[in-house]
Amino acid sequence: MASSENRRDDSPGRMQYVGFCRVCGGGAIGVRLCGRCGDLSLVCDECGALWTDARLGGPPSMHLVDEAPCPSCGHSLWEAPSRWATRGQVFAMGWLARAIEDGVVTLREGAAFGPGE
Ligand SMILES: [Zn+2]
Ligand SMILES: [Zn+2]
Questions:
Q1: Is residue 89 part of a domain?
Q2: How many domains, in total, are found in the chain?
Q3: Each residue of 21-47: pLDDT tens digit?
Q4: Phi, psi (5° rounding) for residue 60?
């Protein structure tokens, strides 16, 4: 794949999000890419509530104030090189792509306000 196409997908200041957070009542739940292991997590950009699956109606898998360690490797999801995932990365992650295709969550794109952007 040409790198220019990757870069276009990688627009800074944008985030892919899949819904709004019921924990804090206002944050967008974005798709966060771990900069170390490449795993994706669903993280509220306001309160840091984190889900490792698409069941966003349930309690978060993790909820630490001002911290969001990657569930797979422990690297901070807020510190570089962790970033918001691109649309291509979202659909490359099997469980998340299936949840979107099945209508469990709806993928939208918006402006990123979370830390690290
Ligand atoms: Zn929240
Ligand atoms: Zn990781």
A1: yes
A2: 1
A3: 999 999 999 999 999 999 999 999 999
A4: -65, 155
